[in-house]
Each structure stands twice: as C-alpha cells, then as structure tokens.
Automatic annotation (TrEMBL):
Residues 1-25 form the signal peptide. It holds the Pfam family LysE. It comes from Simiduia curdlanivorans. It is found in: Cell membrane. Keywords: Cell membrane, Membrane, Signal, Transmembrane, Transmembrane helix. It is a multi-pass membrane protein. InterPro entries: LeuE-type (IPR001123). It comes from the Bacteria. This is LysE family translocator.
Length: 206
C-alpha cells in the first residue's frame, strides 16, 4: 500500500470522526453525566464498532448491508430507537457529575459497562458506516490489494475514531469543566436529551 493512499484514508477518517452527530453527542453525554472513565469506555466501544464495520467492508460483508434496503432500514431504526432510549435516560437522570473522589467498586462497574456498550451500539447501529467505508475503500484500495492491506485500513479507521473520542472525553472531564457542569447539571442533561432525541428523529425521517 502506498503511503499517500494510507495518509488520504487516515485524513478522511479523521474528518469523519470529528464531524458532529449521534456518536459525539453520546460520548459527551456519558462523560458529562458519569465522568472520565465512562467517556473513555464509550470512546473505546465506539472505536471497536467502527473497526468492525471497516473490517466487514474489507471482507465484503458490508456490501450486503449497503445493497439491502430492508437490512439497512432495520439497523437504522434500531439505532434511532437506541438513541431515544439514551435521551429518555438522560432526561430523567438525577445523577450528578462525578467529582474527584473515587467511586466504589460497584459504582465503577455500573459506570463502565453502560458506557462501553452505548459506544459500541451507536457505531454498530449506524448502517451509513458500511456505505462510507465501501466508498472510501473503492477510491484508495487497489483491486489486487491483499487482505492485510485492507485490515490495516480498518485498524487505522478504528484507531483514529477511538483517539478522537478519547480526546473529547479527556477534555470534558477536567476539574474546572466538571465543576462548572455540576452547577448546571439539570439543564445540561435536558439539553443533551433534546439533542439526542432530535438526532434520532433525523435518522428516522431522513
């Protein structure tokens, strides 16, 4: 694989990861409501989901999703439903932003698991990723490229996605930001809930 092709793919993946959308909203929501660990686990889960879609494209499986309107719509509607669920949980949440004190072992587990799962699910329930990677690979991957080259691109996409959302989670969870967020927790939760619900609506009606 040419270095220029790899750099082009990496740049496009970075732009795709940084574009605002449901994934960014969920990572921010988990970080604000449950702290840095939840944000980090959300980022890791989402990165694994992106890697899986990219790998599926390399193996030819994503073609099935892209060419089947039924499968595409089922995944799309499940994704919208999951976003609405997150919006509801956020709206009714009374949980405060975590301060500097360490949570108990049970609390820590309760924070980590939903964070990782929500990140993974948001990526997995986004069928547009299949189309994105099909278009991307068709432009920069040669027809005779080996499976190894394709998997390198898949890992590149997943790594870039994970690093971006790790940066988002880390930046939001600084002490000064958390202290400010804790003073406006209720309004912020309501805002996140509305934004996530609107994003779900755009998925359904787009």
């Amino acid at each position: 694989m040419l270095l220029s092709s790899w750099l082009s793919v990496a740049g496009i993946c970075a732009l795709g990861a940084m574009s605002p959308g449901p994934s960014l909203a969920v990572v921010m929501n988990n970080t604000v409501n449950h702290g840095r660990k939840a944000g980090i686990l959300t980022a890791v889960g989402h990165g694994l989901g992106v890697t899986a879609y990219a790998a599926a494209t390399a193996l030819g499986l994503a073609v099935v999703i892209a060419q089947s309107a039924l499968i595409f719509d089922v995944i799309r509607y499940l994704g919208a439903a999951f976003l609405l669920f997150i919006a509801y949980k956020t709206w009714v949440s009374t949980q405060q932003v975590k301060q500097q004190s360490e949570p108990s072992a049970d609390q820590d587990k309760a924070i980590k698991t939903p964070g990782f799962i929500s990140g993974l699910m948001i990526a997995a329930l986004n069928p547009k990723m299949a189309i994105f990677f099909l278009a991307l690979f068709s432009q920069f991957v040669q027809l005779d490229a080996g499976l190894g080259d394709k998997l390198i691109l898949a890992l590149t996409a997943g790594t870039i996605d994970t690093l971006w959302y790790l940066l988002v989670a880390w930046g939001l969870a600084t002490p000064k930001v958390l202290n400010w967020l804790s003073l406006h927790q209720k309004k912020i939760n309501q805002l996140f809930a509305l934004v996530i619900a609107l994003l779900a609506a755009t998925i359904v009606f787009k």
